[in-house]
Amino acid sequence: MAEESIPKLLYLNDKGIIPGPNETAEQFLRRAEQCLEPVEDRRGRLAQALPISSDDVAAPETLKPALAITRELYGIAPDWVTVFYSSERLRPWHGACSWIIELPEQSPVVAIQLHPAFKTKDTYLGIYQRDEILAHEFAHAGRMLFDEPRFEEFFTYQASSGIRRWLGPLVVHHWEPLTFLVTLSLVVIADLWLTIAAAPLASQWLYLLPAGMAALGLIRLIRRTVTFNRCLARQGEGIKGASQHVVYRLTDREIDAIGNKGSTLAALTEATADTPRVQLLKAAYLPPQDC
User: Fold this and answer.
1) ∠91-92-94 over CA atoms, to 5°?
2) Are strands 96-101 and 123-124 parallel, antiparallel or unpaired?
3) 15 Cα distance to chain centroid
4) Which of 74, 78, 149, 272 makes an SS bond possible with 16, Cβ 3.0 to 4.6 Å?
5) How far apart are CA 257 and CA 248, in angstroms?
6) Which residues contact 167 (CB under 8 A, 6 or more apart)?
């Protein structure tokens, strides 16, 4: 992007419209224009793929507490994102979901679906808090063009409280919980069958399989947590702004390079093609002498 476009890039960054790692300047500006188009126009495009009506759209006042959280944690305030209430396509145990819609010959656009229970209550199922889950989904919206699964949930679960903040990133791929539950169910069925067949001792060894899967998942989580926290700590010096704001805009490879290999943001931006995202990192978070 041209030098004169940097103020606009910084403005869009503040709005949570962040260039993706592989996004060109032309693609980014086209997407930004669609994100900030009039609400009715954007809602009309979303309605082609999602069950949205004007009565279901969340009031702007409802979003303000969550936007305050995202401002503090990620340095973004994506108040342009359409948030609507609907239980359609939402699993009963899910409180919300982010949808990235790609229509023909148009840039991707994002919307957040909230469970209708949040229309009248601040909590759902006794475990989901509206402001936290909205901030979680806003974090996904800001990184909508980042296909970076290793550390994605570390960002989103920073908005959670209690044990969810620490165990939330345990799952990397969407198929992992189902695989674990299917394995556990098969082991329980096999255990019952072997017990009926009077071979209870042999059945006990079957539980090593789901236990091993859980243990490997925890080990992976610990390793990634160490890398993520090292990256945050090493961004504390030599940058402008909060370290978590910088890391939120990095790829998995960059987080790993800083956290495990001692690289720096300045070194990584110098070694990377001058894309809009790299221009943003230099302009917003590196002192002038490092740019």
Assistant:
1) 65
2) unpaired
3) 16
4) 78
5) 15
6) 221
Task: Tell me phi and psi for residue 53, to 5 degrees.
Answer: -130, 160
Residue 112 in contact with residue 142, Cβ under 8 Å? no
State how far the Cα of 186 lies from the Cα of 119, in Å rounded to an integer: 39
Structure tokens given for 9:
């890039």
Tell me what percent of the residues of the chain surpass a pLDDT of 70: 95
116: its two tokens: 């209708």
176-191: average pLDDT: 90
Q: Are residues 235 and 257 in contact, defined by beta-carbon separation less than 8 angstroms?
A: no
Hey, where are the domains in the chain?
A: 37-147
H/E stretch holding 128 reads strand 128-129
Distance between first and last Cα of the chain: 15
Written in H, E and C, the secondary structure of 24-79 is CHHHHHHHHHHHCCCHHHHHHHHCCCCCCCHHHECCHHHHHHHHHHHHHHHCCCCC
Q: Give the single-character DSSP code of 21.
A: T
Instruction: Please answer whether residues 40 and 47 qualify as being in contact, where contact means their C-beta atoms are separated by less than 8 angstroms.
Output: no
pTM above 0.85, yes or no: yes
Identify whether the C-beta of residue 140 lies closer than 8 Å to the C-beta of residue 98.
Answer: yes
Position 35 scores a pLDDT of: 92
- Round to whole Å and give the CA distance between 56 and 112: 12
**Per-residue pLDDT averaged across 8-33, rounded?**
95
Closest CA to 243 of 257, 262, 258: 258
pLDDT tens profile 116-164: 999 999 999 988 999 999 999 999 999 999 999 999 999 999 999 888 8
Instruction: Collapse the DSSP code of 100 into the 3-class scheme (helix H, G, I; strand E, B; otherwise coil) and give the result.
Output: strand
